[in-house]
Amino acid sequence: MFIVYTVSARIAIPPFLFDQNKEVSARIILSEDYDGIITREFGFIISIVDVLTVGPGMVIPGDANTHHLVEFTILSFKPSISEVVEGDVVEIVDFGSFIRMGPLDGLVHVSQICDDYISYEQVSNRFIGKETGKILEVNDKVRAKIIAVSLGTGRSGKLGLTMRQKFLGKDEWIQNELDHYFSESDGNNESEKKTDKKTDKK
């Protein structure tokens, strides 16, 4: 989920930025400190959205920088368990496939690709289902559900995904399941109508 947070922090503006507007200087420092960082509180911080306020500078003896309390907003991607996400397959290895969901990659283990026995074809670098014939390759667009989130600090983070449930996986898999679902629903409705007609005759 993409979220905009309002954050307060103290920053140090070095002398070589003194000729800049305070808001401009603050954005430069904040971008260096926050862009691309992963935290447990905010998730993956994509960028600084806006610098709202920059407090008056404080001078510390022996320190050439000026220190400011700033308030700013950040755009962050914070994944949560059971969240449904969409992305592209960017890498396939024998133990699973990596899905890129904007700023982060998630792993779909081979056991979570679909509800079928899956084999890895090394020559063609793809997965194929034994019973269903489903094929998963690099650059395929997929829909998956997050089943594990492990956000470290700095620039490390891991996401576990599944595509085994209904209406997940490649677009064509989802479309086939929808077609099957609605055809079954139509069949049940026809059966109910026939039963109602027989009841009316009696």
Task: Write a brief structural summary.
The protein has 202 residues and is α+β, with helices and mostly antiparallel strands. The protein has two helices and 14 strands. The chain has two domains: 2-77, Dna Ligase, domain 1, CATH 3.30.1490; 84-179, Nucleic acid-binding proteins (OB fold (Dihydrolipoamide Acetyltransferase, E2P), Beta Barrel), CATH 2.40.50.
What does this 3D model show about the protein?
With 202 residues, the protein is an alpha+beta fold. It is built from 2 helices and 14 strands. It folds into 2 domains: 76 residues, 2-Layer Sandwich (Dna Ligase, domain 1), CATH 3.30.1490; 96 residues, Nucleic acid-binding proteins (OB fold (Dihydrolipoamide Acetyltransferase, E2P), Beta Barrel), CATH 2.40.50.140. Strands 1, 2, 3, 4 and 5 form a 5-stranded antiparallel β-sheet that branches. Strands 6-7-8-13-12 form a 5-stranded mixed beta barrel. It has a 3-stranded antiparallel β-sheet with strand order 9-10-11, with no helix packed on it. The termini are far apart. The mean pLDDT is 89.
Low-confidence stretches: none
CATH architectural group of the largest domain: Beta Barrel
Using the coordinates above, name the CATH class of the largest domain. Mainly Beta
Head-to-tail CA distance between termini: 57 Å
Percent strand? over 45%
Gross morphology: elongated
Give the beta-strand count.
14
Name of the CATH superfamily of the largest domain: Nucleic acid-binding proteins
Could you report the average pLDDT, rounded to the nearest whole number?
89
| Element pattern in H and E | EHEEEEEEEEEEEEEH
CATH topology of the largest domain: OB fold (Dihydrolipoamide Acetyltransferase, E2P)
Helix content: 10-25%
CA gyration radius, whole angstroms: 26 Å
| Biggest sheet architecture | 5 strands, antiparallel
Q: What count of domains describes the coordinates?
A: 2
Helix count equals 2
Structural class: alpha+beta
